[in-house]
Amino acid sequence: MYFILGSRPEANARFQLSFKYRLASPPTPETSRFYHHFYLGYTQRALWDLSDDSIPFIDTTYNPSLFWYKEKLWESAQNPFYIGLNAGIEHASNGKSGESSRSLNDIYLQPELNYTFGNGSSLRFMPRIKQYVGVSSDNPDYRDYMGIINWRLRWQQANGLSIMGSYQQGKHGRQTHQVDIAWPLKRTPLNLNGYLYAQYFNGYGETLLHYSQRSQSQFRIGLALTP
Fold this sequence. Notes:
Elements: E1 2-6, E2 12-22, E3 38-49, E4 57-76, E5 79-93, E6 103-116, E7 122-125, E8 128-133, H1 142-146, E9 149-156, E10 162-169, E11 175-184, E12 195-203, E13 215-224
Antiparallel strand pairs: 1-2, 1-13, 2-3, 3-4, 4-5, 5-6, 6-7, 6-8, 7-9, 8-9, 9-10, 10-11, 11-12, 12-13
């Protein structure tokens, strides 16, 4: 969850709101069953033009999902390595009609390979593999631009710096890169909750409306509630 500001080509903002809701919780972690790991999720992303007189939203993506998630599907007390799994189905739409309408559905599988270092920092590799279903006739070639795998790698210190990089590749060498960096405000003179947040983006799909247009490389900075 973040709000960040940039200036290319002119003043703009990007923000994201996300939440997840666990449908059923076990009495204790030890009594957890398969059905205790189902969640409802919702993410909303928007790109906002701050330079125009009317300050319009360029596009907003609404992204509900239903998924199964377990952080530690396999672990060993003697091993700093553990495996998690996230799998589900999601819908994405920009809520518009006519020529500006965009929507798609996908089923995804996301294994999560985690390693905890002796200093408390952790490394997580979490590629998300997608199979598109029911793609709208308004964007039948979406896969050609965004591909079917979102490769993601995250390194995080305990109560410190967090860095995540992601990479996607479509057909004909179309590439999308994103790097997110977060630093806790508790460890600054401000001593506040949340994070100082910076993001670099270059590629396709920054908005669902303009998924087939390569975005100018962007660097934005702002605040985040969660990195």
